[in-house]
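Shape is hard to put into words, and the shape of a protein is harder than most. The fold becomes a row of whole numbers, each drawn from a learned catalogue of backbone shapes. The outcome of that step, for a single protein, is printed below.
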Amino acid sequence: MALFVDGPACTIDELVDQDAGLLETAQTCGINLTTKVRLAAQEVENEIQVWLERPRSLIRRFSAGGLRIDQVVVTPPLREWLVMHSLELVYRDGYFSQLVDRYQAKWMQYARLAREARDGFVASGVGIVSDPMSLAAPPVLGTVEGSQQGGTFYARVAWVNAAGQTGAASAASTITLGDGHLMTVLATDGPRNAIGFNVYAGWALDTLFQQNDVPVPTGTAFYFTPATAKRAGTVAGAGQAPDMVRPLPRSILRG
């Protein structure tokens, strides 16, 4: 599962899966869906932050220093809340833009569903990781001389912590090499608690397998050798599973 801070926990495609008329509404009303997802995520984050900061007696059960938003994992109930709240914001803006009754009806519908999804998240609790590994940036690819056939290669990377947990994998980088050259893969801007990174590489985006047996040390380039590359095995994952699920109060504390 991805961390909440890795980016919006839902996609526009997921919103369209829920509401088939969404793209038409957005075009008609001039609504930027990416912006609405971002705003919904910010509002959800603000509520979670209040939960994490205010009930100190509960937090001390899990962490003497308190919990942080970067430790929160996107569980299915949290994703559902964000999807419904994003749709609520879209149709709220659609109604005030056009004053069309059907937009108001959908606004009210998604507002209710967002409240129900929020209640479901509260009931299930917030997923927490103790040693979060953030989403990796796309790797820097280079080349060195090597007696191998050239071609076009792709690579993704993911940070690894001391417990062997892997963060969400980066987007892919690509490079085309001539014969007699090898691809090098370097992960950059890693979190301070990372002990290294995993490399997922290959010839096609849908068949990138983990090439390293142990984490590649931070600051070290990995050499991808086509002749001995793994063509099956572990693929890039979405991130860390929660180490614990923290109970939440039934009502939000404000002020």
User: Anything to note?
Assistant: Strands lie at 126-128, 140-145, 151-160, 173-177, 181-186, 196-202, 209-210, 216-217, 222-224, 244-246. The chain has a mean pLDDT of 92. The radius of gyration is 22 Å. Residues 101-124 form the longest helix (24 residues).
